[in-house]
């Protein structure tokens, strides 16, 4: 049992995996069941997070340790100011990226050490983990081909970087099979959504369902400019 009445879900995966699309579809379905839904992302789920997102993805080049610490700072603030308050009031929180992204990108691909980066994020969030993490697995080349905008700092990294990210995500899913579900993100958005729904539905016992199942509009942490 969780220490709060809400439900915390995270979507992970490489570039172009479809996390934003699946977050929206999942949120719409949960709204139809009458849940309060909070859609957010890392970085960028708060006003401070948006500032950090601009620096991390669209700013000047920074060294790997600075990058890792900025992501951890964003995550600490995100959890304390948005995620935990929503969970405590019983909302379903769906985040596009969480600590597993840092483990894959900074821990593995940046060679800072997966365990070190995981420990940093767990300290930053006081140990908060999602009840379910959906890994949208996709070949990095396929994900890159889906991109329609100019690449950001991470997207511009070489193929070897993105392959390391994918391998680490899959390793995390094997190590924590009870928390992860791996979905083939190359399938149609509808097929992917159905697989995610099948895993989320058992996590929605009656204690989390409102008595009056009228739709509750999903709440966004803030507007999400790129």
Automatic annotation (TrEMBL):
Residues 11-196 form the Thymidylate kinase-like domain. Keywords: ATP-binding, Kinase, Nucleotide biosynthesis, Nucleotide-binding, Transferase. GO terms for cellular component: cytosol. SUPFAM superfamilies: P-loop containing nucleoside triphosphate hydrolases. The keyword Transferase applies. Residues 203-226 are annotated as: Disordered. The keyword Iron-sulfur does not apply. ATP binds at residues 13-20. Its EC number is 2.7.4.9. Pfam families: Thymidylate_kin. GO terms for biological process: dTDP biosynthetic process; dTTP biosynthetic process; dUDP biosynthetic process. Belongs to the thymidylate kinase family. This is Thymidylate kinase. It comes from Bogoriella caseilytica. The gene is tmk.
């Amino acid at each position: 049992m969780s220490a709060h009445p809400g439900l915390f879900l995270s979507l992970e995966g490489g570039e172009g995996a479809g996390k934003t699309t699946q977050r929206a579809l999942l949120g719409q379905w949960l709204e139809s069941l009458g849940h309060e839904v909070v859609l957010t992302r890392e970085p960028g789920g708060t006003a401070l997070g948006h500032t950090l997102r601009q620096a991390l993805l669209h700013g000047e080049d920074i060294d790997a340790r600075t990058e890792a610490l900025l992501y951890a700072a964003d995550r600490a603030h995100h959890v304390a100011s948005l995620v935990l308050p929503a969970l405590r009031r019983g909302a379903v929180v769906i985040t596009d990226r969480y600590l597993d992204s840092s483990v894959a990108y900074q821990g593995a691909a940046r060679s800072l050490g997966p365990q070190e980066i995981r420990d940093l994020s767990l300290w930053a969030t006081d140990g908060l983990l999602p009840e379910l993490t959906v890994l949208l697995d996709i070949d990095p080349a396929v994900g890159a081909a889906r991109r329609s905008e100019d690449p950001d700092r991470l997207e511009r990294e070489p193929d070897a970087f993105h392959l390391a990210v994918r391998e680490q995500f899959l390793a995390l899913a094997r190590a924590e099979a009870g928390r992860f579900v791996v979905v083939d993100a190359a399938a149609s958005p509808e097929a992917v959504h159905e697989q995610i729904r099948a895993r989320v539905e058992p996590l929605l016992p009656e204690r989390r369902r409102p008595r009056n199942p009228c739709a509750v509009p999903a709440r966004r942490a803030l507007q999400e400019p790129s």
